[in-house]
Automatic annotation (TrEMBL):
InterPro entries: Kinase-like_dom_sf (IPR011009), Prot_kinase_dom (IPR000719), Protein_kinase_ATP_BS (IPR017441), Ser/Thr_kinase_AS (IPR008271). Residues 23-297 form the Protein kinase domain. The keyword Transferase applies. It comes from the Bacteria. This is non-specific serine/threonine protein kinase. GO terms for molecular function: ATP binding; protein serine/threonine kinase activity. CDD domains: STKc_PknB_like. Residues 304-314 have a biased composition (Basic and acidic residues). The keyword Lipoprotein does not apply. Its EC number is 2.7.11.1. Keywords: ATP-binding, Kinase, Nucleotide-binding, Serine/threonine-protein kinase, Transferase. The lineage of its organism: Bacteria, Bacillati, Actinomycetota, Actinomycetes, Kitasatosporales. It comes from Streptomyces violarus.
Length: 328
């Protein structure tokens, strides 16, 4: 077999039809800062998989390689309905790869970009699934470190009671935490900083509670339509995560009960000690806070009652619901 020395020259099409470690590459399905994900055919088991090929500069980083191997194995060992099953992780010709279940659906990043903020009901359904996955990982001693919408895949659920099935993916594959702790060279792309916990930024020890923070940023964004902190540059964003208070969620979502605000504030606490002890505890608190029902929507002035030149009241927002229309 000829050695593939340039699996990553950047051209997306060049690997199509090629075989890598027993997988035939069929189609590119997405790319992030550190990898390209393909739909591929597992030629041994005759099934479709998602094959993730990590960028070669990561394969050259010993710290990353060790963690990749360790955490891919650890993630593969967790059998959880809301964690993407990893079939195999390995290396071929200097390229690190992961073969995992091919999830038919959309990642949450694309879904939010397409649908906008989601209804509280849909949010709580998806959040509870992701929270159960994170808590299960934590029980296995794994910290995800990169909880963000791009790492949550949403597939069609089984029935109208379960319209979506959410999967968490990419354990320990964050380049961000490596770079924040100085493992990668300065100037490399580190991905989004919208969901990074204060202790990750300051290089303090990171445990499950950093995922509670990242997860809370994601839940905030699902409901508000934007992450808790919006700043013009990365330095300002890192500062905000460490020192600023997030705007109350109800500023963006006045339809939510005000009790939701302290729940988000606790989950986003700067000190891990002040956060919820688990992701499910956070979701339970959010459910309880929003269960009281939707507060009365402010009185909309009638057309006749408006002064000349007065701004027309905005129509009440339509939150995406449901994400998937059920097949009958
Ligand atoms: N198992 C899977 N099944 C189907 N699609 C997937 C699967 N894993 C990843 N994808 C798709 O591939 C895209 C790229 O994934 P990737 O992890 O490389 O990037 P990302 O998570 O957006 O960013 P980052 O590089 O920061 O992790 C995902 O956003 C998702 O749409
Ligand atoms: Mg990812």
């Amino acid at each position: 077999m000829t050695r593939e020395t340039s699996l990553f020259s950047g051209r997306p099409s060049e690997l199509l039809g090629k075989q890598i470690a027993g997988y035939r590459i069929e189609k590119e399905i997405g790319r992030g800062g550190m990898a390209v994900v393909y739909r591929a055919r597992d030629l041994r088991l005759e099934r479709t998989v998602a094959l993730k090929l990590l960028a070669p500069e990561l394969a050259r980083n010993d710290t990353f390689r060790r963690r990749f191997t360790h955490e891919s194995r650890a993630a593969a060992a967790i059998d959880h309905p809301h964690i993407v099953p990893v079939f195999e992780a390995g290396e071929t010709d200097g390229v690190l790869y992961i073969a995992m279940r091919y999830v038919v659906g959309s990642d949450l990043r694309h879904l939010l970009d397409r649908e906008g903020p989601l209804s509280p009901t849909t949010t709580l359904r998806i959040a509870a699934q992701v929270a159960s996955a994170l808590d299960a990982a934590h029980d296995h001693g794994l910290v995800h470190r990169d909880v963000k919408p791009g790492n949550i895949l949403v597939a069609r659920g089984t029935d109208s009671d379960h319209p979506e099935h959410a999967y968490l993916t990419d354990f320990g594959l964050t380049k961000k935490s490596l770079s924040l702790t100085g493992f990668t060279t300065v100037g490399q792309f580190v991905g989004t900083l919208d969901y990074v916990a204060p202790e990750q930024i300051s290089g303090r020890p990171v445990d499950a509670r950093c995922d509670v923070y990242g997860f809370a940023c994601v839940v905030y964004e699902i409901l508000a339509g934007h992450p808790p902190f919006r700043r013009d540059d990365d330095m300002a964003l890192l500062w905000a995560h460490q020192y600023d208070e997030a705007p109350p969620l109800t500023e963006a979502r006045p339809d939510l009960a005000p009790q939701a605000d302290p729940v988000l504030a606790k989950a986003l606490a700067k000190s891990p000690d002040d956060r919820y002890p688990s992701c499910l505890a956070f979701v339970a608190a959010l459910r309880a806070a929003t269960a009281g029902g939707v507060p009365a929507v402010g009185h909309t002035p009638t057309r006749a009652g408006r002064e000349p030149g007065e701004e027309r009241p905005k129509p009440p927002p339509r939150w995406a619901e449901p994400v998937f229309t059920q097949r009958t």
